[in-house]
Design brief:
Blueprint (H helix, E strand, L loop, with lengths): L1 E10 L2 E11 L4 E5 L6 H9 L6 E6 L2 E2 L5 H7 L1 E4 L11 H10 L7 H9 L16 H13 L5 E5 L7 H17 L3 E5 L3 H7 L2 E6 L2 E7 L5 H7 L3
Parallel strand pairs: 3-8, 3-9, 6-7, 7-8
Antiparallel strand pairs: 1-2, 1-4, 4-5, 9-10
Helix pairs in contact: 3-5
Length: 231
């Protein structure tokens, strides 16, 4: 579904990504892991077009995305939930969701009913401003809004950060449900190891701007964690 080949990114002459290669198969959830500052978020931004790549290829369902603006990449089928969520705090929950429909020209409200089934708490807060929701509720809103764009791949940047445990479990269950439906692949940047083990199919670990380990999630054992993830 998504393939990155030899992606390099530089900022003010400093090389941030060094030949990153990732493959996210159809109907799978891939975890991208690593310590702080190793290039995970930069990798995501290079996929969605918020960071200019020096070299390399980004293909979604076989189509090259390099050279396309972020909005064009979104229309090709990328749903992106950035770190910090970036909802519109002064708009209501319903207005936040409606934006996901309007910008993609979706006139039916049926997709809204679907995301409200996945995140029923949002149904209670449709007329509440996004900025007054808790962190966990905002995260659910951000994921719901991304799903309304009908993406081929959903990209999440640390969705468990600052979220209470019961909401983490709910988000995990929802991602597994989405994956099992077989319509959307998921790329997850996450540092919460247990969360990755519970939802992921495979993993990549980055260090100093490059992929240093990869494999099925079952191979994410204590030795790998100690070598690449332990601070």
């Amino acid at each position: 579904m998504l393939q990155l080949s030899n992606i390099t990114v530089s900022i003010q002459g400093s090389r941030i990504l060094r030949g990153v290669n990732l493959t996210i198969p159809e109907r799978s959830l891939v975890c991208l892991m690593g310590r702080n500052g190793v290039g995970k978020t930069t990798t995501l931004k290079s996929i969605v077009g918020l960071m200019k790549t020096d070299t390399g290829s980004v293909k979604l369902a076989g189509k090259e995305l390099v050279g396309l603006a972020p909005d064009a990449r979104a229309r090709e089928g990328i749903g992106y939930v950035p770190q910090g969520r970036d909802i519109f705090p002064h708009l209501t929950v319903w207005e936040n969701l409606k934006i996901g429909l309007v910008v993609h020209g979706i006139r039916s409200v049926e997709p809204v009913d679907r995301v409200l089934e996945l995140f029923p708490i949002l149904k209670e807060f449709l007329q509440r401003k996004g900025g007054v929701l808790s962190g966990g509720q905002q995260q659910q809103l951000a994921i719901a809004r991304a799903l309304l764009t009908d993406p081929k791949i959903l990209i999440l940047d640390e969705p468990t950060e600052g979220i209470q445990p019961n909401i983490i479990d709910l988000i995990g269950d929802t991602l597994i449900k989405i994956k099992k439906e077989g319509k959307i692949s998921i790329l997850l940047v996450e540092q919460y190891l247990d969360f990755c083990l519970s939802v992921g199919d495979s993993f990549y670990i980055m260090d100093r701007g490059a992929v240093v380990a990869e494999g099925p999630i079952a191979q994410l054992n204590d030795d790998v964690v100690k070598k690449h993830l332990t601070v």
